[in-house]
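for the writeup, i need someone to sanity check this before i put it in the appendix. the sequnce is what the collaborator sent (i think, or maybe the updated version? ugh). structure was predicted straight from it, no edits. if anything looks off just tell me and ill rerun, i have time this weekend
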Amino acid sequence: MTLTDSHPGWRRLIEAAELTRFTTEALRTAGARHDDAAVTAEVLVAADLGGVESHGVARLRRYVEGVRNGDINSSAVPEVVTDNGSVCVLDAHNGLGQPALCTAVDLAVDRATRSGISAVMVRRSNHMGIAGWFAERAARAGMFAMVTTNAVPQVAPMGTNEPMFGTNPFCYAAPTTEGTLCFDGATSTVSRGKLEQLDRLQEPMQPGWALGPDGRPATEAAETVTGLINRKGYALLPLGGGSREHGGHKGSALGLFAELLCGPLAGARWSRHTYQGGEAGLGHFVLCLNTAALGDPDAISAEIEQLSREVRDGTPVEPETSVRIPGDRRRLVTEMRLANGVPVLESVLADLDAIAHFVGIDPVSSLTYDS
């Protein structure tokens, strides 16, 4: 598998440590506590390192402005409001989503270490970035973990063109002898962040990803993103699309599953109502299953690794293309970018420069131009 960062839209390479430094300082200067800024920066940069630029520092401006404007509560401390031992509920008090979910994961790991299994829900939170970072944190502690969240309404369940669900990613991670096995994916055909990235790169979106206000397929990424943000009748389609023949009913059911876990069961709002009243209402869900409660954890990790290896060793449909399992590409991209720098688009760098100007910090330093 060959991976490169060559693209006309990529212009500068930035060291991961410098990107983390800048992101942390921007959030802290905007008003976030240092620990909250640090974990938020780590999650954002991890997305860029892994090639998930739609959830990386391109989102930083929204967080910085939210903290500065008071739309995000910079002094919020996640609070346990329901505690039944292995089942807990946290109130994030409208704080940053990354520290809230990190608190939930660590609590779930602690409780599952004691009892074998734990579920922790979060209510009144904000966007939390890539779910995989959190699930892998638990997997490194010996857990089989599942993480999901709801989000602002952008996805139309099959049979309607009205956005009701968020893109509602599901993520699972398990420990292996070689690290972690991790899947992280939306329950929609595509995320809005992906469309924003296509717009920055001036690349086309695929048919069957979204609907316009007339109920017909949307074809322009920029127009679709604007329509989703401004609630102008645009909607993403569920995983499988808009028809039963391609499994759209399954994607709709998975989206609803996330809404149940992160909405009513968490005491949070479901996506259609997440920001009613001007305050965040997102919910998150974490499940941790301690592999040590199932048997020898080392033997289980070895068997998961063997299963992974057998899948990778399967006969490829295309001889020149290797078979991958979830996380393979992200790990390779991360290794490459840690060594060579993180490629950042000029449009995103312009946003970072604007952030530096209005919070009063030094701009991010780039390594080189990548032509």
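Residues 97 and 327 are 23 Å apart (CA to CA). The domain at 78-185+251-326 is CATH 3.30.1370.60 (Ribosomal Protein S8; Chain: A, domain 1).
thx in advance!!
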